[in-house]
Amino acid sequence: MTKRALISVSDKSNIVEFAKGLEKFGFEIISTGGTYTHLKNNGVNCISIEDVTSFPEILEGRVKTLHPKIHGGLLSKRGNELHNQHVKENDIDYIDLVCVNLYPFEETVKKEGVSEEEIIENIDIGGPSMLRSAAKNFNDVTVVTDIKDYDLILEELNNGGITLSTRRLLAIKVFNTTASYDAAIANYFNREDNLVPEKLTLSYKLEETLRYGENPHQKAYHYTQDNNESYALQNAVQLHGKAMSYNNIQDASAALDILSEFNETACVAVKHMNPCGVAIGETVFEAYSRAYEADPVSIFGGIVAVNGSVDKQTAEKMHSIFLEIILADDYDEEALEILTKKKNLRIYKLGTKNNNHEKQIKSVRGGILVQNFNNKLADEFENVTEKKISPEQKRDLEFGLKVVKHVKSNAIVVVKNGQTLGIGAGQMNRVGSCKIALEQAGKKAEGAVLASDAFFPMRDSADLAADYNIAAIIQPGGSIRDQESIDACNEKGVAMVFSKIRHFKH
């Protein structure tokens, strides 16, 4: 009995070689539209879908494979007497293999200036239908949707035939693919129409299997979305070093979150998902030097991200300490020559920075939490004390907010001249975070500003800041005891500003 393969692909990479390989093993090739033309022009002897269905492609190609002679050939159980009877009565031929990859919906959505009409025309109907029919009947039909599986199919045919276990695995891959495809379509419309769906379907692709998770006994995997998010890790190019670990990825992502806050030249150093040094500068070297000086102890073994090109001078300074990862817009040739001397140092060239931020997702027992990216800084800068802030202090207060919103709560950041001097993170009370940040800043705190992610519940934090000669404080306000903190600042000549925005990061 003649074996039949139906081929209909959007991505025609390697399809001619695959089709010719199938012909070699006795397959008769059926094809559609552009795929049919491509195969014929490249020497593949194939049959058009119209010759199989005796029905023309209609509606500008929207309907061509949605036909009983196609789906009957895919779904019929070969050993089922009733199915065999129906196949015979309706003059249906079995289809033994289906090769389909889908219209590029996700790629189309990402195109600049694309119309919704074009997006809708790239919603594949016939492709997923054929894939699902073939996958459902994997006991009898082989289904392939991944170009990387072409060689596997030909290899097994060469070894006597495609095994049931392979057909089952390929079918499972198809169900995951079609589910992901439908999720991408649903999520597009959810975004466009600003909907909160009753059922949320997320689609991620496996980027890599990691050595382990947060700890060596935990298995871990890195999945990514096919999106255009700013500074997405999957869009960065690794230039040197070993693979990222689970913790590396978390730290790198945290560093890029902070870096995305800045348009001026900036450097961010991160340790355990908290910044340990952040600074701006006229040059990358200055920004890195100031971020290093902010906490030269904690940066050891940390991650550094800069929104500029690393030159020889900066590379030499980076090379002088142990760093896990460097992420930068680019690197001079001399800089790379220096940095790559360290075998295990992970060096990444960043992808595009833009204003696109996906929703943030956190797992909880039995579900997930979803929220918008925190892309606000302040509602206003309300000077609530007798002492007013200077323009220079306002710039530092803005800088402080950009950093503190990415520090684990309770969070306090001390800043002067576009450089962090002390960071207090993750304490169970606010004054505890204040003490850590101010002690780290030490004498440098004099004349500096202090940013808090949430309101002061009591005046103790304001009093402590004044003891270190902090010049200005920014906090959201909103405590029933705000006046006590304002009074403390007035008593000690400290300016206080309300931002009216809380920046909890639990």
Note the main attributes of this structure.
alpha/beta; 3 domains; Cytidine Deaminase, domain 2; 506 residues; Rossmann fold; 21 strands; 6-stranded mixed beta sheet
Q: How would you describe this protein?
A:
Helix 12 (284-294) packs parallel to helix 13. The model has no long low-confidence stretch (mean pLDDT 92). This protein is of the alpha/beta class and 506 residues long. The termini are far apart. The chain has helices at residues 15-24, 33-41, 49-53, 68-75, 81-89, 105-110, 116-121, 126-136, 150-158, 164-192, 246-259, 284-294, 312-319, 333-339, 391-404, 430-441, 460-467, 482-492, and strands at residues 3-9, 27-31, 46-48, 97-101, 142-144, 205-209, 221-224, 237-240, 266-271, 274-280, 302-310, 323-331, 346-349, 360-364, 367-371, 382-383, 412-415, 420-424, 449-452, 472-475, 495-498. A six-stranded mixed β-sheet has the order 8-13-12-11-9-10, with helices on both faces. Strands 16-21-20-19-17-18 form a six-stranded mixed β-sheet, with helices on both faces. It is built from 18 helices and 21 strands. It folds into three domains: 3-192, Rossmann fold; 234-349, Cytidine Deaminase, domain 2 (3-Layer(aba) Sandwich), CATH 3.40.140.20; 382-498, Cytidine Deaminase, domain 2, CATH 3.40.140.20.
User: Which strand-content bin applies to the residues?
Assistant: 15-25%
Domain unit count = 3
- Unreliable stretches: none
Sheet with most strands: 6 strands, mixed
List the helices and strands and how they pair.
Layout lengths: L2 E7 L5 H10 L2 E5 L1 H9 L4 E3 H5 L14 H8 L5 H9 L7 E5 L3 H6 L5 H6 L4 H11 L5 E3 L5 H9 L5 H29 L12 E5 L11 E4 L12 E4 L5 H14 L6 E6 L2 E7 L3 H11 L7 E9 L1 H8 L3 E9 L1 H7 L6 E4 L10 E5 L2 E5 L10 E2 L7 H14 L7 E4 L4 E5 L5 H12 L7 E4 L7 H8 L4 E4 L6 H11 L2 E4 L8
Parallel strand pairs: 1-2, 1-4, 2-3, 4-5, 11-12, 12-13, 19-20, 20-21
Antiparallel strand pairs: 6-7, 8-13, 9-10, 9-11, 14-15, 16-21, 17-18, 17-19
